[in-house]
Amino acid sequence: MKLEQTYKTVRGEEATEILKNANGEPIVITFSTEWTGSGQMLDNFYKELTREYENAVYFLRVDVEKSEEYVKTLGITKVPTTLIFRDRDMVDSFEGLLPKDMIKEKIDKALEK
Fold this sequence. Notes:
By secondary structure, this protein is α/β, with parallel strands linked by helices. It contains four helices and five strands.
C-alpha cells in the first residue's frame, strides 16, 4: 500500500482500512485531540519524523473526539496514546509525551522486525 507521506488526521474507520491494507510498513497512530498541549507537541514531532522516515513509516492521528467508538474498541483511556503497528500487528505503544529520541528508538525497533 502506498500512503501519502504526510502526518494525516483520519477517523477511526479510515485508520482501520489503512491498517488492513498495509503491506508491512510500520504505521504510527497517535490518538489525541487538537487542543491538548502534549498532543500538539506530538503533532510537531510526527511532522518532523515524517520527513526523516520518508517512504519507510507512515504517521496518522486519530482525533479521539471525532472517533469515540473506535477509541473505546481499542481500550484507549488516556490522551495522547500512540500505537505502533507492523504487518497489521501492534508492536509497541505508549501513553503521554516521550522525548523525540525515545519515539525514534521505538520506531527503529518496529523497522527491524
